[in-house]
Fold each of these.
Amino acid sequence: MVCKTRDETPFNRPHAARRDVFCPVLVYALGAGTWLVLADWFLARITGSAFHLTAWNLAEDLLFVGVTAALLYVILTRRAQAQAVHNQTFSIISEQAKDGIVLCDQALRIIYANPAAQKISGYRAAELVGHPIAEILSERYAALLGAHVAALELHPFIRQDWDIRHKDGWRVHIEVTTQRLPDGSYLAVGSDLTETRRAQKSADMERQRLQALIRSIPDPVWMKDTTGSYIACNPAFEKLFKLPAEQILNRTDKDIRPTADTGAFVESGLKAGATAALVTNQSYRDPDGKLSHFEITKSPVFDIHDELIGIVGIARDISAQQLSEESLQASLEFNCAVLDASATQMAVVDKSGMIVSVNNAWSRCACDHTCVQADEKKAGVGSSFFAGCRHREGSDPERAKAALAGVQAVLDGKTARFSMESACITPGQELWFMMNVTPFKVGSGGAVITYVDITSVKDAQKLQAQYTRQLQALARMHQDIQERERHHLSMELHDQIGQSLAALKISLAGAKLHVGDPLTTSAALDTAQEIVAGIAQTTGDIARRLRPPLLDELGIGSALAWHIRNLSLPPGVEVRFAQNIDALRFSEAVELACFRIVQEAITNALRHAEASGIIVQITCTPDQICLSVADDGKGFDLDNPLDKDDERISLGLIGIRERVTSLGGTFVIDSQPNTGTRVAACLPRIART
């Protein structure tokens, strides 16, 4: 019996078998010769005679041993060669077999696995040989292995379905035939049924899906074979004929209801539909006398050899559709009258976008605002709405494409409504319309397209935008004038009043020397001198608050730090300042805007918010300079507009917003009751020139 696989050791060949037999025969010859000599010696001792080992006796014994050894050698050699040939034949057959072959010893350890078994399990021969067979079985079949071995004692072989665990983790379903061999080992031959079972399962699932699909179709569905007998039908077909499936299947039309209407309705049409689907409109009167209209679709069914095996028929009830079309036709004149009475331009298009109806307003607009008569025809009944839009793409291609996409989406049912503003450039003027597209759910479908003239509204919007731009320009001019006046006032306070007070100080100091009462005069002049110094100091502070010199000299960072240090804060109020701009400089307008925004926000927080803490931050990005002022005050509700007389409404915030907008920045106010207020702005980073 084979004990190892081909990839481990080769099977025994005849010459190898002779080598394997020589050693046992040699051992036999030595043992037999020794035994004969010892037997003569023992016999001499037992009989009491003298033991004489003569050459003749020795030759006689050796001749006997040689003859028997040669005979044993011939017998063992032939048996070994036969076994080697048997093993080699078994190896060739098993190595080429498509089924997996596994040999196990009496302890159920694997001693051989052919390539097919290795492929099925995913293990190499070296990973299988010597291991218990239970290691590659699933848990369920590993538990049943003992009972299976016991059953082999009573049966010559057993055929079962097993599950083995593939090396990569999944389960492989195989059909195994096992038997016990005469030497006590076990032989198992298995076929991989995984793909077969998977295909069967898929086929069953597809069959169930097909049956469920046919049964769920609301229209009558049936199938006939080539003899005209019904082989399948759905509940809708049973309901139509008012017969159960048992009375329909395996019967022909004449057997079910031998009437002219029935025969014409369900005629198999094998000749007409043998190559392609056939669609016809037919009428059918049911057993109760009700007349219905159907659209019959009959398609051929072929087997895998392209042989016709039957016809499938589907009947779609179009009675309601025909009734709707008749109702639509009857009310068409009424609808046209309603459309003509409206001043709004209206057009009805079908599913393909063809204009089927327009009102008088649509026709008048097409007549009054087209350049040539050919353009007027492109907007009338029978023309394509899409073609007309593409013809007018020259005025505004993007809007024309958007209009096309919106109308198509409504016609396809992807959106319930579409609206957009549309411009129309006429020889005389530019017209604006509000385009509305609503699905038309009568008959075969379509849409109603309306155009409302909003030219006057657009003109008013343009005028409003113009006034807004002018207002912004006036606001910027007003701010510039204010800043120039403040700058001028600052220079006057600092230069003129300061110099005058300094001269007064010098004059009073001189007068001190010529007064008769030196002590009194000196004290008075000292007091005057201190007052003058205070006036000078106050004047300098006013000048710095109006426009701090640090803003021009060192930049926004230093100017804000100086301004915050010199604030007169109420008790318990703290203002913290954080910045990452250091000595970076920006345009004069940006730095001034940042200073005024922070100044106004801090003033509002101290005046209205009742805050105990204020945080001022200014940061710089590659594109912007951003600042924020956040307080922990009482805040307010942004969703509820405040009264105009409320003191919390600050015109300064309006000024801030206008200032930021004029510089192309963004401005945000974030506040809620009892959560504080945060004022933030971002301005474009413009380098200082």
Amino acid sequence: MKHLLRITGLALCLACFPLVSLFGDEKDPKISIALSSADAIKADLKLMLELNPNLELVRELKGRANEVEQPWDVLKRYLDDVFLLGVDPTRLIRVDLVNSDEGVKYRSSFPIADLNDFLENLELFGIEPKRRTRTYYELSNAYEGILRVIDDFGVIGPDREVVPARGFDPIDNDVKKYALDKNEKTIFDVLFYMLNKKGSAKDRRKEYESIKEELLAAVKQKEDETKEDYELRRAVSELQLDELARYFADPKEAVIGWLLDNEKNTGNLSINLVPDKKSMLAEAVEQLGQVPSRFEGLPVPEGKILHGSINLPLDEQQKSNLVGIMELYRESGLAEVKNSDKFDDSQKEAYDEIVKILSASMIDTLKEGRLDGYVLTAPSADGKFTLQGGMAFKNAKSVSRAIELVKKGRPDREVNLNIETHAGVTIHSFTASADMKAAYMDLFGGDTLYFGVGEHEFWYAIGADGIDAIKTAVTKANDTKIEKPSMEFVSLFLKLGPWVEWRGRYITPEDPAVEEKVAEAETTTDGEEDTKPKVSQDELREIAISSFKSGNDILTFSLKRDGDNVTGGGQLDTGLLRFAGHLLAKFTVTLADPGTELKSKEAAAAE
């Protein structure tokens, strides 16, 4: 049944299906996803589609005037006629992932407006419901399972263990706690929550090891991949799985909510993570906010288009994983230099040493147990932008030696050592590569990269006033006294428009044959033709430029310590929702009549 499978697919993606069996033997759901209502989700989709009213679906009819429909009208008709027959569109929908002795099972709870229509909808998807009692049905054919009607909800699952005759409440205390306010109104449009009510984090991590090995076994070496690159990719995968274990096995509860503000036209993400006591995650949270960042307190100017910071202490597992990955990066880099046909032996020797110097310093930095750095791109006096940043770095003076070797490795670049020294920081520079000079001049007003090397950190800048940017930042950092470190350990502010437009001006377009291939007919496993929209990188960039042109193109994200918990979230500005709506409009082409295309009103009128 497409209805159940699609919603369940969403649940599995969000919940990271293979990790569910971490959570012991408790039969209650450990992971749940709640949709506030079909109407709320439809309102979100409608908003995104109508943020660009210039788009329409045009069906060309031979000898007759073209038929024109709005993307939302097509999508709404599809949702109402295919997905929501018999479903109450005003009430909460819930999907649970349930751990059992046979593995992971799922249970879906749909509010019923009309039971006969709901049963008819099942039949339309090839599922045969056979009534056994007034509230109990056996399901067969396209889906094998059972349906129980509980408090006007159709609760569907594979067996009676998951959908019991008694004891299950679709709107239980957990739903009320995480999804509803005191007036029982939904708080989020989409809510994901994970609860570890029984067992210890240590036990769950033990169970996870077998799953981790199974997942890593699926990481295979590709035909065109070198041994070094494969080992690096596998190590990165292992690090990601270890971090997933931290956030799936160690929390007592994790709650992630998404809400689209239909008045402000923004998308809002909310995160709350409660560690299990005595878990590795709890120990890691205790270390947050204890030591100030070297770069804390630096001014962030108005008009910035990028600002990010990190001040993250590393535990032993993270240090071990990251050091291992850095060692593999070193080997991969050395192999790439060795196999390169762009450099002569003298250049290769220089690059070998650069890779070894910087990787050794980075490994020592990781062993120190903290990632501390910032990046900022803000307006400069010449009307361009200056990019600057800094990073705490063990043996930072090794950066000076690496820059000195650039002169030998790339004779075409102008290298200037020891330009000046400011507050113990020595500033060096080298010019950008020939193919990037014009791009750097365009955005930053200069084609030179500046590096300031201190005792325990290095600074960098690109821009006509790059030297002054480094000196000002060093002075401010030295003069700033942090009495109470910030609890925020990750932050990001990104204004996408200027970056997308800049990238678009200096990238080689795709082959026209690829760029113009918007749709491609494919054959599905059941033999039916399925037309899916294909969007090239060039088209994605054009859509992004168009979506961000009017501004409102800001993405923000942050995480901070709040007592013993981790909280945070982010926001998508209107332009990003407009971008998503444009892609959604392209998808609606597949739902419309054959021969329909997505066009702008101007393009349709011109034709």
